[in-house]
Amino acid sequence: MKVFGPKELHEDVQKKDLCIGCGACVELCRYFRNYKGKTAMIFPCTLPQGRCYAHCPKAEVDFDFLASKYWGEPYEGRPLGKYLEVRAAKAGDRMDQGTFQGGGTVSALLTLAMETGLIEAAALTDREGLVPIPRLVTGPEEVVKCASSKYMASPTLAGFNLGVRKGYGRIAVVGTPCQVTAVAQMRANPLEKEDFNDPVALVIGLFCNWGLDTRKLIALLTEKMDISTIQGMDIPPPPAEVLILETANGEVKIPLEEIRPLVPNSCHICPDMTSEWADISVGMFEGRPGWNTLIIRTSAGLKLVDQACQSGFLITEKMPEPNLDHLIEAASNKKKKALLKAQKDGVLNTKQEDQRSAIRMRAEVIERITA
Amino acid sequence: MSNFIEGKAGTRLLLMGNEAIARGALEAGVSVAAAYPGTPSSEILENLARASKHWNLYVEWSSNEKVAMEVAAAASFAGLRSMTSMKQCGVNVTADFLLHLSLSGTRGGMVMVPCDDPGAVASINEGESRQFARSVEIPCLEPGDFQEAKDMIKWAIELSEEIQNLVMVRSVTRLSHASGTVVLGEIPEMRPQAVFKCDGFVLDPKEGIMVPAPVGFKHDLQHKKLEKAVLRFEECPFNTYRGPEKPELLIVTSSICHLYSREAVHRLGAEDRVGLLRLGTTWPLPPKLVEKHLRRVDKILVVEEVLPLMEQDLKVLAMELAPQIGVKRFYGKRDGSLPMVGELNPDLVGQAIAKILGMEYKTAPQEYVDRARQLAFFGAPARELTFCPGCPHRASFWAIKNALELDNRHGFVCGDIGCYGLAVLPCGFQTLKTMHAMGSGTGLASGFGKLGRFGLDQPVLSTCGDSTFFHTGMPALVNAIHNQSNITMVILDNSGTAMTGFQPHPGLKVDAVGNETPSIDIPAVCRAMGARVEVCDPFDLEQTESTLLKLLEVKEGVKVLVLRQICAQSPEKKAKKEYEMRVNEAACLGQNCGCNRLCTRIFRCPALVWDQAKGTARVDEALCAGCGVCASICSLGAIERKEAV
Question: Where are the alpha helices (H) located in A188-295, listed in sequence order?
Answer without folding.
Answer: 214-224, 256-259
